[in-house]
Amino acid sequence: MSIIEKYPSIFGVGGGCGKELPFVTLTGKAEKIAREEGEARNLMEPTVVKNLRKLLMLSIDCRVPLEKVELIGNELGLPHDFKKSLIFKYPEYFSIKVINGRAYLSLENCDSLLAVTAREERFARERMLQSAGGQNKVRITKDGNYLGPFAFKMCYAAGFRPNKSYLEELEKWHKMEFPSPYLNARRFEVADPKTRKRVVAVLHELLSLTMEKRMISAKLDAFHSEYRLPSKLVLCLIKHHGIFYITNKGARSTVFLKEAYDGTNLVDKCPILMFNDKFVALSGRNETSSVDMGADNCKVFDVDGENQVVKLSHVSAETEEGFLVRLPPSLTSNIEEVYC
């Protein structure tokens, strides 16, 4: 009852007079928003189906254990009954197969037209804008960004100042070719620098397939064998702090795709998130797809490129205060080894 009373803009209580039992209803505004859920789901279905196909295409054998798909169902925007409403609805794309007593969601056919990453799509857009603006020179900028077919968007923390040598090494990394994340990982040597860069692209694409471009690190790590992710996943993410953002809130850490956010807010919202935001706004809370940067227990890992240290800082909207944690040699060497 306390929950119902806490949100009078969403719930209303009627009855309770005489022998009539009390009952709970949605308010007029809440009921109007609730009717929009079906439309939001219908609008999202083509995108959800496409992203689910891409998720399977990224895996080694184009199949993922069914319980792992269910694990990230909310992140992908899957309906609760997706096995009935999506899997069986699209038999030309999906099937459930039992292998060694374990149920797998399998891809029935691979479409090469889907084997284009979000990073590649962004590069195509930026190249068109550059051509339209008459800019032909390509060089790395002071913020670490470089326009090239194998480059990643960098979004460093405001206080991060890369020096000249850091930018030179970063430009080399931007220019280095690497295999597509949609090619089978078994074809590549783990120690090859190009393979290590490919793993960064796999992580980037996995986050791009989620609605909010973020995922709890434990869920991301659950796909270690399907996508050949590094054994020391957090270290890999820390090294590429211009691409990924890691928060620790309580016992859970969450990985964000930095380029998907403008400050603390998600740039592009799908119909389901916009529907959720309407309900959240009605309750008086913040939007669901914003990052809580001001919480005292929100810790952010960043790397000081000039001093080769990891910075663990508490972040607020006004100031950034923290302390530097110097890495022991064993951890530093591990960072160089984890597919980076």
UniProtKB/TrEMBL annotation:
Domain PORR: from-to ranges: 2-285
Taxonomic superkingdom: Eukaryota
Molecular function terms, GO-annotated: RNA binding
Alphabetical list of Pfam families matching this protein: PORR (PF11955)
Record InterPro entries: PORR_domain, PORR_fam
Protein name: PORR domain-containing protein
Taxonomy of the source species: Eukaryota, Viridiplantae, Streptophyta, Embryophyta, Tracheophyta
